[in-house]
Amino acid sequence: MAKYYSIAIDGPAGAGKSTIAKRLAKEMGFVYVDTGAIYRTVAYFLDLLGVSPKDVDGVERYIDELTIGIEYDEDGTQHMIMNGMDVSGEIRTQDIAQKASLVSAHAVVREVLLDMQRDVAKSHNVIMDGRDIGSVVLPDADVKIFLTADPEVRAKRRYDELIAKGQKAELGKILQEVKQRDHQDTHRPIAPLKMCRDSVKVDTSAMDIETVVTAIRNVVKEKTGL
Question: What is the domain count for the chain?
Fold first, then answer.
């Protein structure tokens, strides 16, 4: 039976997890799994139905009507398929990000998505990022990275990203949202964001993308020989 490797990258919103994970996956020929996008898809589905992410009964009532698929194009970009529709663009708003954080706190949602995430890792070499990958989803991952950065740095990155897209943005408001998201993610009763004892912490506050990728690549090589 083939040995498949798994790399778990956890950390708060805006630390650069997706950007770094995509780069590493491309370099190593691994499948990149953006678990945040999966929870965003759930949040978007509920939002379309007018169900509040805090409405436990509503979430439990409608979650079985949702079918989520993950597809990859030729360059490895992950696409989220919601009940047959590609919603990869629609889920990338700050509003849906906030609602995804609330939705992810529901046990029924995590139970539905847990097997989906683990099944990918059973049949592929994966780099998976999220909040609880190393602690819950893939506790036996070959490499665990905790990627973080100061809230102010993460807020500025998000601000620059929105401005570059031609969208209006307020740095102070984004910083407030980042801190609120951090509080939600670290204080939820189910699978909160935390650094595992066997994780390697990488603070990206003063690092560019190339430096971060190199640092994590060295950790992977040291732990796996890959």
Answer: 1
